Amino acid sequence: MKVLVAVKRVIDYNVKIRVKPDHSDVDLTNVKMAMNPFCEIAVEEAVRLKEKGVASEVVAVTVGPKAAQEQLRTAMALGADRAIHVQTDDKVESLAVAKLLKGVIDEEQPGLVILGKQAIDTDNNQTGQMLAALAGLPQGTFASEVDVQGEKVAVTREIDGGLQSVELSLPAIVTTDLRLNEPRYAKLPDIMKAKKKPLDVKTPEDYGVATASKVSLVKVEAPAERKGGVKVGSVDELVDKLKNEAKVL
Amino acid sequence: MSILVLADHHDGQLAGTTAHVVAAAQEIAKAGGGDIDVLVAGEGVSAIADAAAKLDGVSRVRVADNAVYAHQLAEPLGALLVELADGYSHVLASASTTGKNVMPRLAALKDVSQLSDIIAVEGIDTFCRPIYAGNAIATVKSDDALKVMTVRSTAFDAVASAGSAGIESVDTVVDNTQSTFLKEELAESDRPELGAAKVVISGGRGMGNGENFKLLDGIADKLGAAIGASRAAVDAGYAHNDMQVGQTGKIVAPDLYIAVGISGAIQHLAGMKDSKVIVAINQDEEAPIFQVADYGLVGDLFEVLPELESKL
């Protein structure tokens, strides 16, 4: 079974973002970029499936600018066999990404597609579900456990009240939650080897997908800053402040 | 054109979040949108429909009561929404795990974008939503004919339950051969729901182990609080995943939030910084949590917690 895993290049999760002075967007110049953390978990899960003999091949895919090939090389250093780069400098929203990934599914015919549940830049949490709908496939979102059994996959999902388990027919779409696995670090020899693994470059036109969106960004603002308050010296003072100043007790 | 709200429910009860989503729908209605319908989909949901019919501002409750919609699996629920969406200008759901699971399917099949987690209505087509873990607020305008959105329930005050909308059944039944419900393991608790509680007390890695989380119980009992956890505490196995407050967990905005042994990573702050009053208890006086806390207490939580419990 072939496993397709989608990854996204995003701002490194440790970086504190700044809004541009003209409020047109977030300022990403000279900011450290990395693979979206949920996508790292997706790659790890795909590689583990291969190590268990469930997956025969792991193909990583991304949609984005030329620099996003760094994240594909990372995915291959972690164990993906080859990569597909749908190259575009346009800002591509979830719906267009899902359409492009649907094009990749049509060509590659994977048995399982794994994506991160959300990217930490737009915080959309949409692409996997949109891809599933467009491809006419079932979905196991927010997965904390994935168990492939023959023609089916059992997915344990993290839901608001606890856990839900569903069984899906394959092919299926899975999106990862934080506790699915703990991603490994790439080893230096694997990073060197990854440079030689095949990487196909495509364009949105190759899949007949227009990337324009009907949603426009009006402005981006920094949120209202919370002012740090006071330090209290004792539990008594805390209780007194909560009762008499904040009036929340 | 009117507005459709997908009701959230579990355990045979209408989820409190639905009243907040209806409040967002009312703001859209005031900006020029039409009537508000609520869709209740599930199996054996008549009591839920009755509760939804009482929500202020709702014109009509549509009920799809069929075994195929049990557990609100994404595939049949998405297909139902696609069938019903014609005639609506906006379809809204709570940004709960159910809403997040199904709404993108509706949007994709209608070939429109989805706006996730909106926190303000600026007009009939313009909305605000947090990006980058809430470190920026984007104002976005959608020119799609159908606007599909999830709503951050804590950003809108719940409507009251003094209405009496009509209830109509929806006969649409869709096929689902792709997904099967296996089981659910829900955390059982007598405490209030984390997302709706007036007081939340959360523990972080500083709690040291899962056993020590019991130190929060007595305080939570006295305050009628829900208990939360930071991602670090959940990852370390101290607390269940459904207790996680943060960018990728629950978003809370209680009147009082007490952070115990939580350093205050960006991802955690994203889930609680809209709380009215924040208290931080941490032994590291440099911890970033103090930068957002109204009241900070530097001290050993193993001494502070029992004392706090005894003085409440």
Could you give the topology of this structure?
The complex is a heterodimer of chains A (249) and B (312).
Chain A: E1 2-6, E2 9-11, E3 18-19, E4 26-27, E5 33-35, H1 37-51, E6 57-64, H2 69-77, E7 82-87, H3 94-108, E8 112-116, H4 127-135, E9 139-149, E10 152-159, E11 162-169, E12 172-176, H5 188-194, E13 199-202, E14 215-221, E15 230-232, H6 235-245
Parallel strand pairs in A: 1-6, 1-8, 6-7, 7-13, 8-12, 9-12
Antiparallel strand pairs in A: 2-5, 3-4, 9-10, 10-11
Chain B: E1 2-6, E2 9-10, E3 13-14, H1 17-30, E4 36-42, H2 46-53, E5 60-65, H3 74-84, E6 88-94, H4 97-109, E7 114-118, E8 120-121, E9 126-131, E10 136-142, E11 147-151, E12 166-169, E13 179-186, E14 199-203, H5 214-223, E15 226-229, H6 231-235, E16 256-260, H7 266-272, E17 277-282, E18 295-298, H8 301-311
Parallel strand pairs in B: 1-4, 1-6, 4-5, 5-12, 6-11, 7-11, 14-15, 14-16, 16-17, 17-18
Antiparallel strand pairs in B: 2-3, 8-9, 9-10
Helix pairs in contact in B: 3-4, 5-8
Brief digest:
The complex is a heterodimer of chains A (249) and B (312). Chain A is α/β, with parallel strands linked by helices.
Would you mind describing this structure in some detail?
The complex is a heterodimer of chains A (249) and B (312). Chain A is of the alpha/beta class. Chain A has a single domain, classed as 3-Layer(aba) Sandwich (Rossmann fold). Chain A contains six helices and 15 strands. In chain A, the strands form three sheets. Chain A has a nine-stranded mixed β-sheet, with helices on both faces. In chain A, strand 9 and strand 10 form a beta hairpin. Chain A is globular and about 65 Å long. Chain A starts with a strand and ends with a helix. By secondary structure, chain B is of the alpha/beta class. Chain B has two domains: 168 residues, Rossmann fold; 113 residues, TPP-binding domain (Rossmann fold, 3-Layer(aba) Sandwich). Chain B is 25% helix and 29% strand. Chain B has eight helices and 18 strands. In chain B, the strands form four sheets. Chain B has a seven-stranded parallel β-sheet, with helices on both faces. In chain B, a hairpin with a 4-residue loop joins strand 9 and strand 10. In chain B, helix 3 packs across helix 4. Chain B is globular, with a radius of gyration of 20 Å. The mean pLDDT of chain B is 96. At the A-B interface, helix 3, helix 4, strand 9, strand 10 and strand 11 of A face helix 3, helix 4, strand 7, strand 9 and strand 10 of B. Chain B: The electron transfer flavoprotein serves as a specific electron acceptor for other dehydrogenases. It transfers the electrons to the main respiratory chain via ETF-ubiquinone oxidoreductase (ETF dehydrogenase). Chain B: Its cofactor is FAD.
